[in-house]
Amino acid sequence: MTSLSRRAFATAAMASLLVGCGGHRPDRATAARPRSTPSPARPSAKTVHALERSVPVSLQIPAIGVDTPVMELGLAPDGTVQVPPIAADDRAGWYRHSPTPGRIGPSVILGHVTVGAYGDGVFRGLARLQPGERIVARLENGTAAVFAVDAVRTVAQADFPTDAVYGNVGRPELRLITCAGPRSGDGYRDSVIVFAALSSDSP
Question: Which domains does the chain have, with CATH numbers?
């Protein structure tokens, strides 16, 4: 699993009419090091077993009306995490150097809050999620990883909590990330991060 350095959540360069989030810069040197800060996730009342590895193909968040295909994201030439393309058929993207949903560790999925001339992005309502609400990642092998929201945080990108988002954890967790707040240059000042844990509803 790849964790990220403590550098800020940087804004990617985009054309002036295109609005979206930038990527993070990974730091493979710290990949095996446990996170030093605690996760905001609450302990689960039931034992939840990790799922087999299978890449996500879609994501549903009923509380905010999200039903999106999921593409794979890697690294951009500058070393930052890729983001989904700015397009009319906006979709979320799973960072393929993170665990697949349902595996031990934090699986990371990114999405835009706006997509320029195309309007709202797929994660436009992310900040409205409440603890306990469901997130369903449907996997390539036909199963589904069902998560329950633990916490939703809005943070300045300059203070992005890298360890809490990408650091090692001992159970299957999910991170959803988008931009928020006022515009700053070609991007946004803040980030919204949803922390979720695998639910006992998963197979």
Answer: 56-198 (2.40.260.10)
- What pTM was computed for the model? 0.79
Question: How many helices (H) and strands (E) would you count in the chain?
Answer: 1, 8
Percentage of the chain modeled with pLDDT above 70: 76
pLDDT digits (tens, 9 = 90+) for 73-96: 998 888 778 888 888 889 999 999
For 87, half-sphere exposure in the C-beta direction (CA atoms, 13 angstrom radius) is 8
Output 101 or 37, whichever has higher pLDDT.
Answer: 101
- Torsion sign (Cα): 60, 64, 170, 105: positive
Range list of β-strands (E), the chain: 56-61, 66-73, 92-95, 105-110, 134-139, 144-156, 172-184, 187-198
CA angle at residue 130 from 10 to 140, to 5 degrees?
70
Tokens describing residue 132: 């306990």
- Which tokens is 191 given? 């980030």
Q: What does the alpha-carbon distance between residue 129 and residue 123 come to, in Å, rounded to a whole number?
A: 11
